[in-house]
């Protein structure tokens, strides 16, 4: 793949002859047109593709969260790319002939900010989720005003809910209202803190699996 400032007719996208033009991360690039192959992928290659697809399908709905809060970009790798790499290595398992996400290893953020301490969650009436934690302001870079970020996921509904800036570190508790269709449905819950300018985040905590009432 090569970058260029100006083509014969300026920047272009699409296929022209034997090359393909595109804009990648703000740069005009050209690469050779891919050749068709008749090679049958090996079983290992098929498994790796399936593993990648499982992770991508799970992470894509909250891609915006990862692009803001998962570590720091490395060279051409975005935060989302780093999240995909982590989950492929650490948070997916082969279960009964299919790949499954290992929820207690899922991270929604990764960083140097102090995370949640003594966090707990309990379901209360009318599809509400009550969270509590200890105010650990002053530990490391933690501030009382750091905002809580909560992500809830239902495997049954294949649906995420993201709650951001509903509470701060010093509030020590929060009750979240989920939609009525979450009633009696088990959900996975993760929580983290981010600072006010969104430049620092904590490594998230898996709060647990809760069945809503």
Can you give a write-up of this model?
This protein is of the alpha+beta class. It has three domains: 2-32, no CATH class; 43-105, no CATH class; 117-211, Immunoglobulin-like, CATH 2.60.40. Helices cover 17% and strands 37% of the residues. The protein is built from three helices and 13 strands, in the order E-E-E-E-H-H-H-E-E-E-E-E-E-E-E-E. The chain has helices at residues 43-59, 63-69, 79-90, and strands spanning 2-3, 14-16, 19-24, 27-32, 92-95, 98-101, 117-124, 128-134, 147-154, 159-168, 173-177, 186-194, 205-211. A four-stranded antiparallel sheet has the order 1-4-3-2, with no helix packed on it. Strands 10-9-12-13 form a four-stranded antiparallel sheet, with no helix packed on it. The protein has a three-stranded antiparallel sheet with strand order 7-8-11, with no helix packed on it. The radius of gyration is 21 Å and the shape is globular. It starts with a strand and ends with a strand.
Overall pLDDT, averaged? Answer: 90
Fraction of residues in β-strands: 35-45%
Number of domains: 3
Q: What is the N-to-C order of secondary-structure elements (H for helix, E for strand)?
A: EEEEHHHEEEEEEEEE
CATH C-level category of the largest domain:
Mainly Beta
Mind summarizing the main beta sheet? 4 strands, antiparallel
Which class do the helix and strand fractions yield? Answer: alpha+beta
CATH level 3 topology of the largest domain: Immunoglobulin-like
Rg, alpha carbons: 21 Å
How far is it from the N-terminal to the C-terminal residue, by CA? Answer: 54 Å
The named CATH superfamily of the largest domain: Immunoglobulins
Low-pLDDT segments? none
Strand order of the largest sheet: 1-4-3-2
The CATH architecture of the largest domain: Sandwich
Count of DSSP H/I helices: 3
Shape summary: globular
How many beta strands in the DSSP annotation? 13
User: Helical proportion?
Assistant: 10-25%
């Amino acid at each position: 793949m090569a970058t260029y400032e100006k083509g014969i007719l300026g920047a272009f996208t699409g296929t022209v002859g034997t090359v393909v033009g595109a804009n990648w991360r703000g740069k005009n690039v050209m690469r050779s047109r891919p050749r068709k192959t008749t090679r049958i992928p090996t079983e290992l290659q098929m498994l790796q593709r399936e593993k990648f697809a499982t992770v991508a399908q799970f992470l894509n709905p909250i891609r915006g969260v990862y692009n803001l809060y998962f570590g720091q970009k490395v060279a051409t790798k975005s935060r989302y790319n780093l999240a995909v790499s982590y989950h492929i290595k650490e948070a997916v398992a082969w279960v009964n002939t299919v790949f499954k996400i290992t929820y207690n290893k899922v991270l929604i953020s990764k960083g140097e900010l102090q995370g949640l301490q003594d966090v707990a969650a309990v379901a209360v009436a009318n599809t509400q989720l009550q969270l509590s934690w200890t105010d650990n302001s002053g530990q490391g870079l933690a501030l009382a005003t750091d905002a809580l970020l909560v992500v809830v996921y239902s495997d049954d509904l294949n649906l995420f809910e993201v709650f951001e800036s509903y509470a701060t570190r010093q509030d020590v508790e929060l009750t979240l209202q989920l939609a009525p269709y979450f009633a009696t449905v088990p959900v996975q819950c993760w929580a983290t803190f981010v600072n006010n300018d969104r430049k620092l985040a904590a490594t998230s905590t898996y709060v647990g699996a809760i069945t809503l009432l």
